[in-house]
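Notes to self, Molybdopterin oxidoreductase molybdopterin binding subunit:
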Amino acid sequence: MLNVIINEELYDAEFVEEWTIGFEELKKFVQDYPPEKVEEITWVSAETIREIARMYATTKPACISPRNALDQHTNASCAIRAINILMTITGNLDVAGGNIIALPVLMGQNDVSLSEKLPPEALKKKIGVDRCLISKILHMFPTAATPALWDAIIHGKPYPVKAMFVMAANPAVTSANSNVVEEALRKLDFLAVADIFMTPTAELADIVLPACTFLEKTRYATYSTHADHSWNARSRIVLSPKVVEPLYESWSDWKIICELGKKLGYAEYFPWETREEAIDYELEPFGITCEKLRAHPEGITITLPPLMYKKFSGFLGGILRSILKMTKFKDYPEMYRKYEGFMDGFFTQSKKVELYSERLEELG
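result:
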């Protein structure tokens, strides 16, 4: 599709010129993939590829909804990047009816993940950094690359992994190469699982902790207020209150984590007695509490970009936010082309969409 759109000059030349870098490298690269060659690879006819490319490029606005299926393949990152490039060169980024730029609620709430407490030397020991690009560049969540984790358990390299605690997951079934996964889980010295069912993973566990269902715990969820598609562009916060007390000995995941933290000697980082107290702390920058959410079962909409709540906090911050809402952000969250305004470009080093990324090249 990129080959057709570029060679037939169906792209948004003005947007490409002003807001991207690497277009010439992209143009050169796609010449190796004419529709006829792609037909041999994908079994989609060259005629169909041209028809879809022209339809997408000439429809204004146009929206692509990738969703999760793409994540389940070995070339997921490259496929998603190619789709994002399609959105970019056709000028469909952050426009009404197109693919909007997400500013998730978590950018403004208080962080309770404690990821900042992880020592730098421990962060450097993330398993799979040498094999998985996302593990190499993403430090917000210090996650090991899953295939490399199974190898580390089985072979003890780059270092032995002896124990695992599984929550809200069933890797024995959902992770790729289930025979290897089962071998790794069986080799662990200790495996604990918290779940509402006795899953295949739980059957391998030394200890199974009964988790409660969503009806037995209070939580909050975020939803999108946009009709346009994006990833997690959520601006409405809704409370999902507990309906009944947890049955039998079941606990919520939140309670299990907090109690484990306290037993491990980190009680100072888990000061809340109830989940409601913790939610109030997380949403404090927005001035939202569980009490307010209960009074608004339809949810409360964040009326400014989330990062503004931390940038302008306190009493005076509230006044400044009110002024910003009446002036600069009166249309938020139904606000488009944010890269031309308060975002000051895109979230890249160049402030532009990097069709060709030198950083990715450096990372191999």
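- The first helix runs from residue 2 to 7.
- Residues 227-232 have pLDDT under 50 and may be disordered.
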